[in-house]
Task: structure prediction
Amino acid sequence: DAKTTQPNSMESNEEEPVHLPCNHSTISGTDYIHWYRQLPSQGPEYVIHGLTSNVNNRMASLAIAEDRKSSTLILHRATLRDAAVYYCILRESGYALNFGKGTSLLVTP
Amino acid sequence: DGGITQSPKYLFRKEGQNVTLSCEQNLNHDAMYWYRQDPGQGLRLIYYSQIVNDFQKGDIAEGYSVSREKKESFPLTVTSAQKNPTAFYLCASSIRDSMNTEAFFGQGTRLTVV
Result:
């Protein structure tokens, strides 16, 4: 099944934008790109998803490369509450979400 | 208030005992999933079910069993055959075969073998 590659950790200052990268070079034409985040000792929560076009919602933006082999989750103004592990996942039909280790985001005041 | 509920939040088990973790959803989702998470690691798939009375093994099904008798419920039994059961267990649900929708997760059950 398809896999993604993310940096193990990233750091950001509060109120600054954060760009979390994800590589998915083996993505197929029908795979959706999903992002979830997990706060300590909690279940993951959905952040955003997309197929080909860039997407915006109240939490974040998703920028998808033209060849779809990479994407970037953008938090426009990081807050301390955004400190979490962020997972980039390719959603395939008929399969469960396949989680990697994600990127641990540290936000400093 | 729609959502997915896991209980209990914390569970202690003696070695050699079976224990069942509860997962209930009122989102009318066909698909349900169980994951295991160890400290500092991502989620690993134990079992998933796309429809009532049907389920498939995930990547780490050994030592676990499930049932899906009702759409709303997907209990997970951790058997004595599971050699290292201490972990954080997460249940999720989603619309079946829909890549364009999100999955919803419960708040997890932390199981400790004593």
